[in-house]
Amino acid sequence: MLKETLALETLRQKIERAENDAGSSSDYIDYGRPNEKDAKAAKENIAKKMKEAETLKVELHALIESSSQGALEEWVKWHTNILQGILLEQATNTRDKTRLFTARNTLAKWEKVITREKDYVGINWYYLKDYKAKAEKEFKGSWWKFWK
Predict the structure, then answer these.
(1) pTM here?
(2) Which structural domain range is residue 39 located in?
(3) Maximum distance among all Cα pairs of the chain, rounded to whole angstroms
(4) Alpha-carbon torsion 24, 137, 122, 1, what sign?
(5) Number of structural domains in the chain
């Protein structure tokens, strides 16, 4: 895997973590019944994490623009291969149908990355949790491979 590909995915995952952290704080406000002080802290965290995500998206855009076409293709292909495998699954219930729908939509977003119409694609943590876990595992600690 190219060094640029790993950098692209690392940045994508940082954006995803920032957005998920903001979402967790939002859920805490909505469902956790925080006192006024904790609610204020959660709102501040939401603002901080969303700003962080926006800053990282600007960085991702710049990295995509400066990356080779080969790295961009490798990054997108890694994701689309997993999604295409998910789309081969049989849908036997509503949850499975929703999973396939989510995979199709995510695949369409990745196809826009290769044409540079889109920079960032988040992975649905609920319906595509196995795909998300595989991305986290596959790209975690991969930097050492550059030295081989």
Answers:
(1) 0.89
(2) 3-142
(3) 53
(4) positive
(5) 1
